[in-house]
Amino acid sequence: MTQPNVVLHPDLPPGVREFLTDKPDITVQSPTDGAGVAESLAAGGSVLVTHTWRDEFLTPSLRWIAGTGAGFEQYPLDRFEAQGVVLTTAAGVHTNCVAEHAFALLLALTRRIGEAARNMEHARWQPLIGEELGGKKLAVIGLGRIGDAIAERALSWGMDVAGCKRNPTHYAGPVKDVRGTDQLIDVCGWADIVVLASPARPDGRPLISGPELEALGPGWIVNVGRGSLIDETALIGALSTGRLRGAGLDVTGTEPLPADSPLWNDPKVVISAHNAGASPGFGRRWGVLFDRNLAAFTGGGDWINRLGHDIARGH
């Protein structure tokens, strides 16, 4: 059998490119930009490794997209189904990494590390009084693998944890108080801290806007899910009035976050550049998935994290 022709998007997580270029059983192409990716696929590439999408990537030869992200809202799933393109995601690969990053953002807010880092830029010695997490009430919005990992860490720190899930009926994770998203405002009213770990809504509408932020009151919010989950205008308003005590954002509505966004200059905000899932161990863990799915692609096994049109709608 001819070796699969694998096209690599230039923007990949740590270790993925190195893993693939060392594999003797595939042919790898490494274009330097999106146009080059489209050209390589048009020339016969059958596998695309990426977490971003452009319509010109959907060429007649494309058969499998080996996604390096957990999300799938950027992909035209109907067109994939019509053409018989398989999409696999990296769901589960960065669970622990993202959970740790969520806590890093949270601690930067509650222990005021973000403000201390700003003081360092001016050699300003200013003791700051931070809050303790033990005994605080944490609401995790989105109880998938990442949400559960965040909840487990919070419970071990002596926090009270509740969660929201689209369908809580069959939930079997570590959180005892699990409610449907129709009770989101009540959950925000209960919480001191809200952590968003859910995928984007299919219609792109925010989960958190003015009423939810009003219910949260003098608390903190952390987003390691998707930027569209928070109404940024409402968030900026809640921060500017001083009612919301802080926001830790790994994702924003527009990425990169525009330079003129007031979020950059707010001392109550800590921002990272959508890198919660990135770590030196990513490539190795993702490679295990790729090898299993490569066997399925070449007819020798079952797919892992395969996303079909019907499955996507029920996610």
Keywords:
11 helices, single chain, 315 residues, 16% strand, six-stranded mixed sheet, alpha/beta
Report on the structure:
This protein is of the alpha/beta class and 315 residues long. Helix content is 32%, strand content 16%. A 7-stranded parallel sheet has the order 8-7-6-9-10-11-12, sandwiched between helices.
Report mean pLDDT, rounded to a whole number: 95
Q: Report low-confidence residues grouped into runs of 5 or more.
A: 309-315
* Proportion of residues in extended strands: 15-25%
Helix residue percentage: 25-40%
Number of strands: 13
Q: Based on the structure, what is the oligomeric state of the protein chains?
A: single chain
Quick rundown:
The protein contains 11 helices and 13 strands.
List the helices and strands and how they pair.
Blueprint: E1 5-8, H1 16-21, E2 27-29, H2 34-42, E3 47-50, E4 64-67, H3 77-83, E5 86-88, H4 95-110, H5 113-120, E6 137-141, H6 145-156, E7 160-165, E8 177-180, H7 184-190, E9 193-196, H8 210-216, E10 220-223, H9 232-240, E11 246-249, E12 269-271, H10 282-297, E13 306-307, H11 309-313
Parallel strand pairs: 1-2, 1-3, 3-4, 4-5, 6-7, 6-9, 7-8, 9-10, 10-11, 11-12
Antiparallel strand pairs: 5-13
Helix pairs in contact: 4-6, 7-8
